[in-house]
Amino acid sequence: MTESRSPGYCRGLVDKLESEKNLSDEEFSSVLLCDDHDFDSYLAEKARAVREKIYGKDVFIRGLIEFTNYCKNNCRYCGIRGENKNAVRYRLSEEDIISCSDKGYELGFRTFVLQGGEDPYFTDDRIVSIIRKIKEHHPDAAVTLSIGEKEKESYQKFFDAGAERYLLRHETADRSHYEKLHPGNMSYEHRMQCLRDLRDIGYQVGCGMMVGSPYQTTEHLIKDLRFIQEFKPEMVGIGPFIPHHDTEYADCQPGSAEMTLRLLSIVRLILPEVLLPATTALGTIDASGREKGIIAGANVVMPNLSPKNVRDKYLLYDNKICTGDEAAECIRCMTMKVSKTGYRVVVSRGDHISR
Ligand code: SAH
Question: Does some domain include residue 97?
Answer without folding.
Answer: yes
